[in-house]
């Protein structure tokens, strides 16, 4: 109670709401989504979200995007898509609210909070591994990573690939923090937490995440001008890569590599055919679920590609409506870089984007409650430097 009282004294009501939003990302989606919904309804009632839309440059393009997506979903009776539009409205509303009230102190607290909570995610993930082994008849603990979806650990994030992307973001956040302190104890703590998360990343069996994390780390270090450390980590990545080449059986789910890629190509073919049929507006979010049978695609939720699914779902025009808002954000982020206000923050945002672009070549894990909201919060935090 004393800790809660100190938080209330130290932060404004709006900032506490932001902290609670970040905290909710450590809960399963059936807890996180209702909380975010109630929060959005409260902020709508108090008109704070309306004010956030009014005060945010280029936010009208976000409104156009949501209205267009809703109309298209209704036209094609894409009821799952309609539900997704509601979630998109929640995420965009909370993102703009976050932009309005974030400051450097709250941002640092949120990062430290999520980094610490990632240890609890890991503990629950290992407990989940024990349950999986027990269900499969193992009488001892083993680090074996299984191929079937139901036998892969996902902690509180519904799917192993979503958990993997959350870990990727956490590792980038640890990089931000570890280069921002000169205290040896904190550096050791961050390093140990990073090692724990790397281990759980391996246990998720998400193969694409290894390459995405390695490249994103190198990009972070280059932007942050840590060239020597970048060289050392680059060499370590090469050594690890050689190890897996020599011992391919140690690479998680190696036996399913060809089969999984064959399935991906089948998914992408169906998605491309769907894009050809409705190139301008798509048919709303999760279009793939509606059209995969029509084009003999694999039965799954989305197109498993960040380069295909947005165009399939929202069309060229739908995606284009977001460009003015995105460009405005890029300009503001570039100002932070040009004025050298905080290179670590610029490195954090760019490295998270690299994670999305590389991981997104084979999956669409950013289109989820936890991963999407966390990235929007990180990428929108440049507003904390507005006083600069």
Summarize the structure.
It is built from 17 helices and no strands.
Structural notes for this entry:
With 388 residues, the protein is an all-alpha fold. It contains 17 helices and no strands. The protein has helices spanning 2-10, 13-24, 29-45, 48-55, 59-75, 79-101, 104-135, 160-178, 184-204, 207-223, 227-246, 257-277, 287-291, 309-320, 323-338, 343-359, 369-379. The chain is globular. The relative contact order is 0.13.
Strand percentage lies at: under 5%
Structural class: mainly alpha
Distance between the termini: 35 Å
Q: Indicate the overall shape.
A: globular
Oligomer: single chain
Low-confidence stretches: none
Number of helices: 17
Taken in chain order, the helices and strands follow as HHHHHHHHHHHHHHHHH
Task: Calculate Rg over CA atoms.
Answer: 21 Å
Overall number of strands: 0
Biggest beta-sheet profile: none
Roughly what is the average pLDDT, rounded to an integer? 89
Helix percent reads over 70%
